């Protein structure tokens, strides 16, 4: 049998296919390799860019921290200078300190030993001889009431130089009150200063809240009443009650606006005294009516209260006003 000596078509076809597929695979691998190289380059560029940006950010951060550090160092240096200056002023001022109470003891008692400072209340001496002779008894009653109200630290017989007080001299004038404020401006305080002018007794008040500087200090007359020196014995109960009313109103304002706590004084005030002294009664009605109005209109107050607290406070204030109006 004779055989054909040439290559078969199948063999030729397979060879061509192998060659073509080999070339295709090679081209594919080459393309993939080039893509991987390009991808790696892109990754390296991205990484380098990231590293550069990271370095720039770190550098900016370090410079900003350095700048901030310098700023606060300047503040600390200035504060240190001011403190040294105040020490010199304080050493000079201490000789004019008008209270019997040690300054450092006040700070320790009100700032360092309590999580929420109470309202410190001080009653100034009178410029009426008879009223001044009864000063200690008046302090006794205000102190008893302060215990009923709570959140009050009443300073009994706080003023120095009591023996110097006479009809022409009042220890608790506004200048003295500002001296007290200079040291105690970080401690919420009420100073009641009874002043006889002609035939009228004015109850001036100096009030300030937490350390807000002179911006929180204000002095105003809260109540007044007819007064005659020879009638003091008949007037002394009303005078004491008026001062108790002022203390109660200011205490409730302080606790309401600083701690969102509802008023207490209308619950403990004696109805008998309210009936006996209608002008003091009306003073309280006016004050608590204004307090209720403030809580319903003040956005600053509402910002610190939950809806439940606002409802409770409004109800208690309305009850207080209703009680006082009876």
Summarize the structure.
With 326 residues, the protein is α/β, with parallel strands linked by helices.
List keywords for this structure.
326 residues; alpha/beta
Strand-pairing-aware structural class: alpha/beta
Overall pLDDT, averaged? 77
Strand order of the largest sheet: 2-1-3-4-5
Poorly predicted sequence stretches spanning 5 or more consecutive residues = 1-5, 163-169
Tally of extended strands?
5
Count of helical regions: 11
Radius of gyration: 41 Å
Distance between the termini: 140 Å
Helical percentage: 55-70%
Strand percent estimate: 5-15%
Oligomer: single chain
Count of discrete domains: 2
| Main pleated sheet | 5 strands, mixed
Report the order of strands and helices: HHEHHEHEEEHHHHHH
Gross morphology is: elongated
Describe this structure in words.
This protein has 326 residues and is α/β, with parallel strands linked by helices. It folds into two domains: 44-96; 97-325, no CATH class. 63% of the residues lie in helices and 11% in strands. Strands 2-1-3-4-5 form a five-stranded mixed β-sheet.
Secondary-structure blueprint:
Layout: H1 9-93, H2 103-112, E1 119-123, H3 129-133, H4 135-149, E2 152-155, H5 174-184, E3 189-197, E4 200-208, E5 218-226, H6 232-259, H7 265-268, H8 271-276, H9 278-297, H10 299-302, H11 307-325
Parallel strand pairs: 1-2, 1-3
Antiparallel strand pairs: 3-4, 4-5
């Amino acid at each position: 049998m004779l055989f054909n000596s040439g290559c078969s078509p199948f063999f030729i076809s397979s060879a061509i296919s192998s060659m073509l597929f080999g070339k295709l695979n090679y081209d594919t691998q080459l393309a993939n390799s080039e893509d991987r190289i390009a991808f790696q380059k892109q990754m390296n560029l991205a990484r380098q860019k990231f590293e550069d940006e990271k370095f720039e950010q770190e550098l900016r951060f370090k410079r900003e921290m350095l700048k901030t550090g310098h700023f606060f160092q300047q503040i600390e240096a200035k504060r240190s200078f001011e403190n040294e200056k105040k020490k010199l002023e304080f050493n000079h001022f201490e000789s004019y300190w008008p209270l019997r109470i040690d300054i450092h003891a006040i700070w320790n008692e009100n700032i360092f030993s309590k999580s929420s400072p109470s309202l410190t209340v001080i009653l100034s001496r009178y410029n009426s001889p008879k009223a001044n002779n009864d000063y200690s008894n008046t302090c006794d009653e205000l102190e008893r009431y302060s215990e009923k109200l709570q959140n009050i630290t009443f300073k009994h017989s706080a003023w120095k130089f009591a023996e110097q007080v006479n009809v022409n001299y009042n220890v608790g004038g506004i200048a003295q009150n500002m001296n007290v404020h200079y040291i105690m401006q970080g401690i919420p305080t009420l100073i009641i200063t009874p002043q006889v002018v002609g035939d009228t007794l004015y109850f001036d008040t100096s009030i300030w809240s937490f350390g807000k500087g002179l911006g929180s200090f204000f002095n105003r007359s809260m109540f007044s009443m007819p007064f005659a020196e020879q009638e003091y014995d008949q007037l002394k109960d009303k005078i004491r009650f008026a001062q108790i009313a002022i203390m109660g109103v200011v205490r409730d304002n302080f606790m309401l606006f600083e701690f969102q706590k509802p008023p207490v004084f209308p619950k403990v005030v004696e109805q008998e005294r309210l009936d006996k002294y209608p002008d003091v009664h009306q003073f309280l009605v006016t004050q608590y009516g204004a307090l209720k109005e403030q809580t319903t209109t003040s956005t600053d107050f509402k910002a610190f209260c939950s809806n439940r607290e606002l409802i409770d406070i409004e109800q208690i204030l309305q009850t207080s006003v209703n009680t006082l109006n009876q």
